[in-house]
Each structure stands twice: as C-alpha cells, then as structure tokens.
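User: I've been going back and forth on whether these two constructs are worth ordering. Before I decide, could you fold them both?

Assistant: Sure. I'll take them in the order you sent them. The first construct and its structure tokens:
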Amino acid sequence: MMFVKLEVVAVLVFARAIPIYEASYITTGFGAPVTHRGASLTIGPRGPLLLEDTEFIDEMAHFDRERIPERVVHAKGGGAFGYFEVTKNITQYCAASLFSEVGKRTKIAVRFSTVAGERGAADTQRDPRGFAIKFYTEEGNWDLAGNSFPIFFIRDPILFPSFIHTQKRHPSTFLHDGDMQWDFFTLRPETTHMLLYLFSDRGTPDGFRFMHGFGVNTFKLVNATGHHVFCKFHYLSNQGLRNLTAARAQELQSVDPDYALRDLYEAIKSNNYPSWTMYIQVMTDMEAMNTTFNPFDDTKIWPENEYPLIEVGRFTLNENPTNYFQQIEQMALSPSRMVPGIKPSPDRMLQGRLFSYPNLMMKVENL
C-alpha cells in the first residue's frame, strides 16, 4: 500500500509540471476543461496509464467513433447554406408557416450527391444526383429529399434494396457489374422512363449549379381551413441547364474527380451565389380519381399542360461549410420530417422512405 501511495504522489507532481494553455482552453466532448492534450496521466515518468485519465479516454473514444459508416446511397456529396424566400402567395394551398407571406425568408441547408457512387467516386459519373433541402422553419425542420430527375426507377419500395445492390459492387468479384445492373433494368420495365433520363445528357450534369431538382414523391398540402391538394415540388436552376458530354464527363473522372464539389465551393467563395426557383404542381382529390394515370406512381410525371407549374419562391446558396464532416457529411435528411401543412400522400415510395430514411439517418448522425 505504501508503494502505491508514493507512486500516486509522483503522478501528481508530474502532472503539475505540465503547463496549462494560457491563451485559451479546450474542453472534452462533455464540456470539462482539458488540462493538457500533449501527455497522458501516468504512474511516474515511465509508468503505465491511469484509468482516471478521463481526458485520454474522451480523446480516444471520440477518435474511435468519429468516422461514420458510408451512406448506403448518396455517399459522395457536397453542400452549402443559404435562404429560401417566398415570391408568390400559395396560402390557398398550404398553411406551412414558411409560405405564410411574400418576402418571408427561411434558412436552408442543401446537400448534393451522386446516388450509387461511393464516398470516393467521381462527381461526373453517369448517375442521378441527390438534391436535398433542409428548411429551418419556425415550426421545425422540413426536409425535402429530392433528386435531379422528376421520376424514379421503381414504384414499389420493396424493390429498392435489390435495385441498389445491382448498382454497387458484385459480392464475389467486388467489381461493378454491367450484367447485374442490366438484369434488373430489363426485368423491371417500369425503369424505362428513368433510363431515358439517365442516358440522356442530363445524366452527366455540369456540376451542381446547372441542374434542376425535384421532390419526386407526391405530397399532400393542407391549407388553414383543412382543405388539401396533392403536390409535386420542382426547383429549377436560375443558372440554366448545362450538361457535360460523355467524353468530357469521363475525362473529368480522372483529372478532377471532385469537379462538382469544387465548382460549387469556388462559386460561393467568389460571391457568385447559385439560386433556384421553386414551383409546385397541384392536383385535387377529384382530379386524382379521374386522371388517366396513377399520380402516386414515382415512375411517371404529371403533364405540365394539365397541371401547370405554380411559382412559390426562390432559394439562394450564399455560405460554404466551415466543417465539412460536421455540417455536410453528418447532415441527416429524411422525408418523414414535415411541418404542419405538409403531409404524406398514398405515394408508396414516399411511404417506404418514411421508415427507411430515419432508420438510416441514425447511422449518419452516429446515434
């Protein structure tokens, strides 16, 4: 016992010999001040570590957990912050507070991404692009997790895992497999519409600033009197639509794989703020019952000559992230996060996402 007591005294003397930072101080993840990050607490100058060194334990525990698993989809992404401003009155359709008056501004965060690409994939590979917006409203956060195409490959969410598996690496060879991908496409004819988009020039957009975005799913808007309409969201680029040729996209994969991320960051840094105008299409209950197509089928568009675009507002990105991992990589977006006035519809893909996305985002947030 005497030996242990003497050694502990030595520890205290050793600890006092290490100076505390004078200019400022840092804390652990729980807010306790850190004495010194440059040395562990030991039993004497050459002794083992002590379990009571909570600063070391906090440092290592954070390090062990700081990298989150790659998202199963939309793994490679970039983003920025800005604001949404209402330009037209749509209170006859929706009671959500962010649409309450013309000129009202709401803070937003946007995450762009590829869909099938891994975290290290090139930005210019042929793929749909994720285009998700988080609105920080006074009623809570509203997430509009959309894509660069107005439709999707499938209409039944139970097929989604199988579809994504075919777009990833083959389980045996660990290589991307064209046979595996096209087996799925040819066996599921509802993918044809989306394939026409994917293999057009819009499958290789010229960065994130020159592409449109769409909510894809059908939502329900409810006004202050309780009357509802069904809705599709569109956000069209004010920079115009610009795409890469297949040859240029392939070239950039080797010379600048982060092309889209770099373009967005540098544009905002130079005060060349990108913006998009948001529109909605609306459909009444009666129209939904009498239409010649299923308005809740995500493989179909709503004809604009029958359901014209209605302007809602404009959003602008004017702020780059200062901590990419914390602000963009850990940005958790889920269609289940809605605000009063916006509700789900009978859209089956949306209903599937209402469960799947919150479940996935717990991993993204490292919960």
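The second construct, handled the same way:
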Amino acid sequence: MNVTIKDIAKQLGLSHSTVSRALNDSPHISKITREKVKKCAAQMGYVPNLSARSLVTQSPQNIGLFFSTLSHGTAVSFFYNIFQSVNNTINGSYNLTVKSLDKYDDFNSVKRSNFSGIILVSQSLLDIKFVEHLAKNKIPSVILNNDYSDMGFPCFVIDDEEGIRLAVDNLYKHGHRSVALIGGKEGFRSSNIRLEAFKKEVNKLSIMINKDDYYCGDYGIKSGYDGTIEILRSSNRPTAIFCMNDEMAMGAIQAANHLKISVPNELSIQGYDDDLFSAFVVPQLSTVHRPLDSMSRVGTEYLLRMIREKVQGAFVKKFEPTLIHRESVSAVE
C-alpha cells in the first residue's frame, strides 16, 4: 500500500497542508519542521506523485538538464559528476530530463508549460542561441560552466585560470622548462580559457614552447594518444606534456608506453579535471581537481529557490580548483 501525505501527517501529528508544504520546501514552513517531515517520509517509504502535484499546482514538475553535447567532447566523468550532483540535489522532488543540444534542433518544446526550470551545462560557444531562447521565454534557469550573467542569468563556474596556473606551476616546480601542450576541443569555452591561461603562465615562468609542441585535441583519449605520438616525433622532445583534460592524459600515457618511453622517468604527463579514473591508471595521474559536484549542487539549489521562492539574480559564482599531485609528474634529472 502506498504511503500518502495523510499517513505522514497522522504519524507526526501535523496537518495535511503543513506536511504538503514541507515536502515542497515552502519557505513558510520552518527548516526544522521541513527536515522532520522529510525524514519521516523517507522512513515510511513515501514516493511523491509528481503527476498529481502538477495537476494541483498547475505547473510542470520537470527540470531540464541540457548539455552542449553528450558525444563529442564531453568526458564521461564530467557528465557523471554533474548528473549525479544535480539528481541528488533534486532528490526526486522533480522529474529530471537530460538532453543534448547538438541533437536538439527544436527549442519550441522548451517552455514554462513543460519545464519548471532549466540547468544548462554550457560548453560550446554555439550555446548562445539556446541561452537567448531561455531569456526570451523567461524560463527559470541557471548556467553551469559558463558565464552568461550579462544576459541576466545566475552562473556557476570553476576558476580554470587558477587551475591551469596550478598545473603549470607543478611542472615548473619539478624542473620542467620544456613543456608541450595537448589542447581541448575547438569551439569550447573551456578550451579557449585554458589555452590563454597556459600561454600566460608559461610566458611568466619563461617555459619554452616549440612550434611543434602544440596539438589541438578534442578531450578524447584518442586525441591524447595521437597528439603525444606527433609531439614525441620532434627532435626537440619536451620533458613534460600538459593535457587539458585527464582523458587525453590517459591517451598520452598509452602513447608513451607504445614508444617505450617511461612515465615519469623519461617524460612527465600532467592532466586536468581529476577524472574518476585518474587515480587508477599506471602511473597514477597528476591532475587538478575541478569541484564539479559542488558547482552543480549549489547551482541546482539556487534553481530550486528560483522556482519555489521566485528569487532572481544575475551573477557569477566561482569555485576554486586544487592541485592533485600523483605519480605521472616527477623532477627532471
């Protein structure tokens, strides 16, 4: 037999309306009462009927999670970390729909009658059309991973300029003065920011970059492999390769192994992102942790406030990355 709101109300000695509002995170119900009701509901096995709630409230019970792409340039761990954090934060209070913009040509179905709110994980510079659609239709929305605050959106991003500085400095502190770079996917905001930050930091530290020491990757393992093979063909072999994400760094390690070049004894490899598998490759990957889970959780919490409390704001909140030094980077001998 399904547990109902009436059952929870009877168990706690509260009114039906109080329990209902508590489960919907009404700001008119105290935090203590909301937590008590939710704890009791979980213990009793209560499952919200979102269809019924939609009929009562006359509003959709759907949140859309849109990515620029899910097939070209989106690392598995990037998608997984964000999806898991968003899903856990929503915690069954809304249906979660996941879509990819590169497979979604018709924006007309993205409207307030179908979605209570939208989370856009913006990677591509082409996302501007979808952002304009959200603004025009006044759909409660937050942007993760990109800054569209000038268009009126709350935006939640990771400070990649600081992250790149940490990565380059790690190589510098280990004596590397000749560093090659495998860049990210063309047309991605992250690729542009990381490349400019890399140029700035290597210039500041007087690290040598030869013309053959740059390869444009696509955030995939194969591009890391191919880029490393090409870079290591150069007569001026670098002492280290910096890959702009961990998947490419894993490909770089494979390429070095194929060429019988020891990592890190003969070549150091620095990754970026702190991929789910970065601690399990051999050697373990030195990388930079980007707090995708925190960024996604805080962004989703703000969207829920936009939906329930009608808060509004246009701002950028930055989350700080941290260096994770492991085995793939060692001192130059």
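Notes on the second construct follow. The chain is about 40% helix and 15% strand. The chain has three domains: 5-47, 62-158+291-320, 160-290.
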